[in-house]
Write a structure and sequence with these properties.
This protein is α/β, with parallel strands linked by helices. Helices cover 47% and strands 7% of the residues.
Amino acid sequence: MIEETISRIQTVYLMDSLPWVVGFSGGKDSTALTQLIFQAIAALPIEKRHKKVYVISSDTLVETPLIISSINKALMNIQNKALELELPIETHKVKPEVENSFWSSIIGKGYPSPRQKFRWCTDRMKIEPANRFIRDKVDQFGEVVMVLGVREDESATRAQVINSHTVEGKELMRHSTLSNAFVYAPIKHFTTDDIWKYLRTEESPWGSDNHALYALYQNSSGGECPLIVDKEIKENAGSCGNSRFGCWTCTVVSEDKALRGFIETGEEWLRPLLQFRDWLSKIRDKREYREQHRMDGGVYFVGQGEDKELGLGPFTLEARQMILRKLLETQMIVRNPYDPEYKLILEEELKHIRRVWRDDGDWMDTLPQIYREVTGEDLDWEYDDRAMFEEDQITDLELLCEKNNVSMKLFKKLITAEKNFSGYRVRRGIIQEFNKILNQDWLHYGKVEGYKE
């Protein structure tokens, strides 16, 4: 079976000049896939190794630390061995843009932590970074082939999705959303037993320890969270937080079995992460931490009759400040034995969140203060010497708004809009921005029973 698969991979590799993009998540399926491709190309004469193979791995920036450490090591080993053997293989990590990272979305914009019916994270943190890399290669080469470690026996739904894209007699499938991209699934007929038998009997060509990978699965009670580049696969894939390696922050499921499994097998230093994740899940649906309108100002109702109430919006600014403080406190006590420089939140994320908060009415510029109070340190913050208001002036404005029954939140939005247009000779668009703010739904539901700003 293995020899036949390697031969088929060589045939598909040689049949055109389209570069390959191989999805590598560090789990059993993607490791087996990459190892088979590595062996197939290494067995070809040098003159036939005619096109690039890009091995890409998605780093959401909140991956379980043990997993991302294993992925980083594997990518480095693959690249070094490929250079040694003169193989046209390059390894790359793809990451979400800072404005789409997990913490920029939750702590910055106030997105509620993901749940089954609102899994905003997969698109922003996995699909889009991978697709951005693929689109870049399409622009460069015209067409590309995505090589994925998807298998039919993972689930009936996965098998259905794979079969719906398969053309009889053809090895390549059309990508469902990316034009000029094809999908090749060399191990789609492999069973889980086939995968482990191959990995445990064949040595890794780049020197990794496949037995250690097997132990990692046993310790986590989990499985692989594959690199997802297809929204149809994503919609049917379920969560990676329950029985698969994935993000340590995943709140889609009630319990993170992988993280708990690592702790129970001796990785006690991960416990603060699990505690933070459980706390974040617990506060997600508490009304006192959520706005009663959506980010665009719209409102919606849940329930009917006497049980009817306004739905929950994003986290309030106060809740976001609380989440950041607790995250930084967690960061202060976590000691990653595999990476002394490990951070739960990056400096560029903190700086982006600060800008979002200030646009959202954080006139006191609280983020540097929170960071200083928790860590005892300062980052290289950029300060605006022209503060919008002094602290006593803000207090006076709050009192005036209360006295005149004017929403302080509305006042802040209008002042922020005015500031954003200041300095322009032609302030085209400011009236439209004011009208947009003044016509948001939440302003007109102040007398609805049960509504509180």
